[in-house]
Specification:
10 strands, Transferase(Phosphotransferase), domain 1, Phosphorylase Kinase, domain 1, five-stranded antiparallel β-sheet, extended, 13% strand, 12 helices, three-stranded antiparallel β-sheet, alpha+beta
Length: 312
């Protein structure tokens, strides 16, 4: 595509095209036009060189990038199974293989939500997805949060609870409702940072969803209580004090937690203490007299009195 044709478009359209091409929209418009034109030229060259597919090839599966399966990660889920794989360059990833019944639209939606969460550092990085072969390739994580809790006799440290709350807050900020607070959906990376996985039930937080649940912070309303309920058979709710801070009084009663415990709220009233002025000191009669310290008077001498006669 010629740059002169792109220049006729309004600036908003150029920025939308740059966003679709995953370009940095903060660059000058002239630079964006050149990069967009180069991308279109590359696509057009590939289309002219590549032969047209035969009709019989439409049903044939396109061979994906070769990944060698090393082992299975975790148990087989309802939608698919996760494997540890290695590519031809020797890099290891996690590959989620879906059932063939999963539609292309839902797979693309899950991959898009995973990629958006990964941009904010709360999910593994998206490497590749293939709708024909029904799989998603992502960054390999080190350990499941459930295994970490097993090693510590079911306990979850307050630091990890705070990281979990931060993940929920970020999800609300980027308008993604995860909707599956299972402990199996949280993993730690090589640095020990907590990440959230499996966006199969996730959805965008739109105005309809916010109105339905009466809040813009949908994750903060449902995910902490959901995680505690998932773990209720193994650990009592009191084992998650940080998460309980974000559970409302109604849900606390369902969990059997005392309602008098402190609850974090955005609109929590602030109690102001009255400031009293100190009483005025009582002065004695001697102290009430005002004393003014003046310099001592100069001594009067004969010389100071005699005036000098004016000069003629």
């Amino acid at each position: 595509m010629d740059v002169s044709k792109l220049r006729k478009l309004p600036k908003e359209s150029i920025l939308e095209i740059a966003d679709m091409c995953r370009l940095d929209k903060s660059l000058p418009v002239a630079t964006l036009l050149q990069q967009i034109s180069a991308i279109f030229k590359e696509v057009e060259s590939k289309q002219t060189v590549a032969p047209a597919p035969l009709k019989s090839q439409k049903t044939a599966a396109v061979p994906p990038t070769k990944y060698t399966r090393i082992s299975q990660l975790g148990e087989k889920g309802k939608e698919g199974t996760v494997y540890l794989v290695r590519d031809s360059a020797g890099h290891e990833y996690a590959l989620k293989q879906f059932a063939k019944t999963k539609s292309e639209r839902t797979l693309e939606k899950e991959a898009a939500l995973l990629g958006k969460a990964a941009e904010f550092g709360i999910a593994p990085k998206l490497v590749k997805y293939d709708t024909a072969e029904s799989y998603i390739v992502m960054e390999k994580l080190e350990k499941s949060l459930f295994d970490v809790m097993k090693e510590s006799n079911g306990k979850l440290s307050k630091a990890l609870q705070r990281e979990m709350v931060n993940i929920f807050k970020v999800l609300d900020r980027i308008q993604i409702f995860h909707a599956d607070p299972s402990p199996l959906n949280f993993m730690l990376d090589a640095s020990g940072k907590l990440r959230i996985i499996d966006f199969g039930f996730a959805k965008h937080i739109d105005a309809k969803l916010q109105k339905e649940h009466g809040t813009t912070d949908v994750n903060m309303k449902f995910m902490p209580i959901g995680f505690i309920l998932k773990m209720k058979d193994l650990m009592p709710p009191s084992a998650f004090p940080v998460l309980l801070m974000y559970v409302n009084e109604t849900d606390r009663a369902l969990l059997g937690v005392p309602v008098k415990a402190p609850v974090v709220s955005k609109h929590r009233p602030v109690r102001l203490r009255s400031v009293r002025k100190p009483p005025a000191p009582v002065l004695s009669p001697k102290q009430t007299k005002i004393k003014i310290n003046l310099p001592p008077p100069k001594a009067v001498t004969r010389k100071s009195i005699v005036r000098k006669a004016p000069k003629k």
